[in-house]
Design a protein that fits this description.
- By secondary structure, this protein is α/β, with parallel strands linked by helices.
- Helix content is 35%, strand content 16%.
- The chain contains 10 helices and 8 strands.
- Strands 1-2-3-4-5-6-7-8 form an 8-stranded parallel β-barrel, surrounded by 5 helices.
- It starts with 13 loop residues before the first strand and ends with a helix.
- Bound molecules: 2-phosphoglycolic acid (PGA).
- 2-phosphoglycolic acid binds at residues 19, 169, 174-175, 209-212, 230-234.
- Residues 19, 169, 174-175, 209-212, 230-234 line the site of 2-phosphoglycolic acid.
């Protein structure tokens, strides 16, 4: 079954995304200014909004800049919100949408997430859309069902020719030190790829996220249909993130 479909183009670079969440500082960005890349991969760093300007001036050019969220509205009287076009004007190319922390802590529904994905695409940015199951859904053997529902609600409704990235992040693996085993990741990524390839004419990269670190990165990246990693905690240490990007 695992070899039945491997849509990942083996020659394509892996995509490694750093999600700094509500952490980081200008000092940390200064540390990252000497980041060295020895293996070909696409690196995207998503700092908090207030560090986007410093990220642009301090990071080496090969590190692309992403944001962690944006408004579902294009513009207008929405105090405190940031639109995708404002992000584009701040040299942002990517936006993480639908992270489980946004879904659970800020009550973002699939409907809102779909609107955000659409506004990001309209603004010529690339959404990194997160999907994933809770521990109880996993225990009830509902992982694939839950992912399918999220894919149908937030991803396959958008224009079929568009550029986007999907991140599979089991919620129980985020920040816990736990990860699914290799077979689970293989099976889940295959399922996601199949769903996406039935809808899109382009190959949509599918990243794995959830306690990815310098120790487990090569094992996870070698699994079929894993096109890269979305890294939280381990992306806050330059040495660790460098190891991950170069592993
Ligand atoms: P983690 O976070 O790597 O700290 O588990 C990943 C994420 O939330 O994107």
């Amino acid at each position: 079954m695992s070899n039945e479909l491997n849509i990942s183009n083996k020659n394509k670079h892996k995509i490694i995304v750093a999600n700094w969440k509500m952490n980081g500082s200008k000092t940390l960005l200064e540390e990252f200014s000497t980041f060295s890349q020895t293996k070909p991969c696409d690196i995207i760093l998503c700092p908090p909004f207030t560090l986007l300007g410093s990220a642009k001036s301090l990071l080496p050019d090969f590190i692309k800049i992403g944001a962690q969220n944006c408004s579902e509205k294009d513009n207008g009287a929405f105090t405190g919100e940031i639109s995708a076009t404002l992000l584009r004007d701040s040299h942002v190319y990517y936006v993480i949408i639908g992270h489980s922390e946004r879904r659970t802590l800020y009550q973002e529904t699939d409907t809102v997430i779909l609107k955000k994905v659409e506004t990001v695409i309209r603004s010529d940015l690339i959404p990194i859309v997160c999907i994933g199951e809770t521990l109880s859904e996993k225990k009830a053997n509902k992982t694939l069902q839950v992912l399918e529902k999220q894919i149908n609600a937030c991803i396959t409704k958008v224009n079929a020719q568009t550029r986007l990235i999907v991140a599979y992040e089991p919620i129980w693996a985020i920040g816990t030190g736990l990860t699914p085993n290799e077979n689970e990741i293989r099976e889940t990524h295959l399922h996601i790829k199949k769903k996406l390839s039935a809808h899109f004419n382009i190959d949509v990269p599918v990243l794995y996220g959830g306690s990815a670190n310098a120790e487990n990165c090569s094992r996870i990246l070698s699994i079929e249909n894993v096109d890269g990693l979305l890294v939280g905690g381990a992306s806050l240490k330059k040495y660790d993130f460098e190891m991950i990007c170069n592993c």
